[in-house]
Structure formats: C-alpha cells, structure tokens
Amino acid sequence: MTSAAHPPPTPPAPDRTPGGSADSWAAGGLTLGGTLMVVYGLFAVFQGIAAIANDEVYTSFGEYVFAFDLTAWGWIHLVVGVLVVLAGFGLFTGATWARVAGAGVVGLALIANFIWLPYQPFWSIIMIVTGLFVLWSVFNYRSSSTA
After folding, report:
1. How high is the pLDDT of residue 79?
2. How far apart (Å, rounded) are the C-alpha atoms in residues 112 and 117?
C-alpha cells in the first residue's frame, strides 16, 4: 500500500487590484487625512478664538496688500475650522460627499493660511503642507467597492 503524497499548499494569489499598494497608501492617507483635518480644524478654531478675544496675540511681519483686522481673521479661522472639523469626521466614512466637502473646505483653509502668512509664517507653512497632503489623500482614494 502506497499512499500518494499530498502536494504542498499553494501560496495565496498576489493582489492584482488596480493601483495595488497606491490604493492602500491612499486609504491610509484618507484616514490620516481625516484625523489631520479634525486636528487642523481644532487648531484653526483655537486660532480664531485667540484672535477674536485679544487682537494683540498676533503681530504682522511687514506691510501686505491683503491686510485684515485680526478680529475678522479670528472669525474667518473660527468658521473655516468648524467646517474642517465637520468634514474631517465625515471623511472617516469614506463617503463621496465627505470627500467633496473635505476638498472644498481644505481648499478654503489653504487660501486662508496663505493669506495668514504675514501673521504666523511658520505655522501657516506647516498648515499649507498638511492641507496639500489631505487634498492628495482625498483625490487619490479609490473605494474598494468601485475598483
């Protein structure tokens, strides 16, 4: 009686989904982007509250064409910050509406931070780079149900 040897198990097939690892980067980036949006929005809310409560918290570095009253800047950052937080929480669902809203409010936040450069140059650059990463994550995400 001879018994036939069983063949060794076959390894799992490699993932051949379109985009492969770039999709996983974008999915992880979308989660990180949502987290960064919530944190970014909270920081913007705190910036806004500080500018509304006390105009002497921030100073301008030079003369610029787009000079605004700091109280007005406080309200702008407060409103944009609340919108970014809401869109950031929506981004965790991966819904299309949240991605569109997130891209829109992050675009507004990028513009606000560019114009905010005279008051907080270092912080504005950090927030602009963060916003660009969030936009990359939102635009490069592909849901596994649509792939």
Report:
1. 94
2. 9
